[in-house]
Model the fold of this input.
Amino acid sequence: MHRGERRAKRPNVVWSVFVFLVASAVAGALTAGLALPFAGLVGVTTAKAHDSVQYLPQDLETAPLAQKSIIQDADGRVIATLYQQNRTPVTLKQISPIMLKAIVAIEDDRFYEHGALDFKGTLRALLRNQSAGGVQQGGSSITQQYVKQSLINKARTPEEVKEATADTYERKVAELRYAIAVEKQMTKGQILNGYLNLAFFGDRSYGVDAAAWHYFGVHAAKLNLPQAAMLAGIVKNPNGYDPIDNPKRAKARRDVVLRRMQELNIITAKQAQDAIKTPVLNPAAVKVIPNGCANSKYPFFCEYVMAKLKENNAFGKTKEERENYIETSGLVIRTSLDQKAQKAAETSIAEHSKPTDDVIGAVTMVEPGTGLVKAMAQSRPYGAKKGQTAYNYNVEKSYPGGFGGFQNGSTMKAFTIAAAIARGVPTTYRIRSPQTISLGGKTFETCKGPISVASYNPKNSTKTVLDPSMVDAARASTNTYFLQLSQQIGLCPIATIADQLGMYDAQELKPLKQVISYTLGSAGNVTPLMLSNAYATFAARGMYCSPQVITSVTSLKTGKQIPTPGPNCHRVLSPGVADGVNYVLQQVMAKGGTGAKLKFGKSDLAGKTGTTDENKAVWFAGYSTRLAAASVVADADPRLENIINQTFNGKTLHDASGSGTAGPIWEAAMQLALQGLPSTKFVKADDKIIRGNVKDLPYLKGMTPADAAAKLLSMGFKAQMDHGARVDSDAPNGTVAWTNPRQEDGAPAGSTVTLFISNGSKAKPTPPPVTPPTPPVPPATIKPPPNIPTCPPWDPRFPKCKRG
Done:
């Protein structure tokens, strides 16, 4: 016979349990765990009854109560609540005495008189239910209800929940057996306390304290009579007696509780009547506890915190286990969010963009020397409506909400500057950098060997001097300079530093590709968080700290901290190299630099603009010693297109640049975040960093190439000819016009000096010889003697000159 068929022939469960109780009361079978001699009276054999009891565990194993966790900002203010069950466990002393009396009165008024089973109460309930033709009164004691709630709380799968709530003979018997064990293990007060912390009070409120706070805005210790009566009445049918959706039914049920308390002489008739006259609920007092990051004030930051929490193996072996632990274990998660900086970022975004724009704006702010992520804001808010998004444009694609970044253009030049300075290249180093150069066939050394492309003709987007120094090239963001510099020092040193500063492809979560145009930001997609944190390393004088959004995790129950990754800071650049980078990027903010319009206040500021090919994204990244930030304006809708002719801040963009489009977001955010703080200065770069460890170069202009080369060799340098066309110069044709490095800049010992040969086009013509004028003959003051000629007869200018 199938199991389902056996169940179908069973008598009514309530009736079976009733007779089971009678038999048990007589035989003491539940306590002893023996067979039930009278079970046959209800059509259940002694063997079946014995099987239902004999093998049940003696002790009830309970699971920890699921309770809500909270996420806080850096100052301890709650920014998000996480829970599967909104619960705050409390002790018996933290529950109002009237609440304890109300729940006992309506659920089990003989609670303190009977043991695990209330035979009289069950019989009374059974008789009432039978006469009414339905279930009008429950027969379970508070101990039995505690057992049932504990088994449900322990269930971890839908199957276990179904088994714990099944309307079957076996479950009822199991609960009775467990109830006996509980009564032996716990006091009445402990059972009542456990029950009130477990019970569901409707509208996502579990436990009496969460319910009191939700419905009345008070904690359980402050509940008054009508409030306690309402909560006591809810537990029988939390959905049916919900005071928000069903206020009339809730009031009627509350009043039943009050009358029962009067019947039991717990309260007087006057107290009951006064309580009945009060409204069941004050809607203004209801406090909704938002659940999850979607309901947080900072949903994107919150989701990023959750993503990082789920990476912590201390919370479980799998992401699912970790998520369950985080949402049920009552954790206090302190984060790095600084509400002043966050407000500054949000204000700036609101001033410079609109949610309905075609393109997006985003900015992240990081503290140098700690890696603490202070703020994160973007133009499209969280949601699924028009102008909303679930993507976080500030972070990597490490979880479903991470967008995965954008190409970052010339902001990558900062890493080329760092690598060059680290290799001893002075900031005065000049390279001839015309508007367009040909790099086809040129070899670039990567960490895996040389690479080249057949054809590549990059150009500058800004104008600069023909032979800029590193500072000049940074100020004007000269592409042709930095491409040649990256070829000379190699891509591997640049990529190594970028990697050490936390730069990787945020879309693929792999290292950036070492391509020829690496220094122009086409090696992969990066994020504002990634870039701001990398630039923060320069501000911290070479101390890199991995980005940190979680500063501590503490258990609400024990008060103990749970291990979580803390600050991870280590030196990747020498202070001198970082000072050199700061010196160069500070000039970008000076007059004539691409970031000059973004300079504010008295603090030293450094930064770099960035624009990608076809203007799909524009950037500005910059910092003071206190704060670093990176802002981006980009097309975030596939397929990604040029942002020019798309709307931004409600207007069509006719031009786009790092300084003019993304820069104002950075400027306003930084200015507001630093407002009121003392100004700061960078450490002055060493002269050897600025000029390099150089020797003086000889003056070679106008010398023949052979003589100039010989001179250089004699001083310990190497010489090479520039094989391009001769250059315009005022030096004689075929002689040295200038050198690279320049004579005034000097060059490191043993370095190669390139000789540029003049075409003489600006040379001054040789002037004709000038005959000095003949001095005039002064008039004689003494009469010459006779026969002395008055003119020089040997002078051919005087042919008629004769002696006197």
Remarks:
- DSSP finds 26 helices and 20 strands in the chain.
- Residues 86-285 form a domain with the Penicillin binding protein transpeptidase fold fold (CATH 1.10.3810.10).
- The radius of gyration is 43 Å.
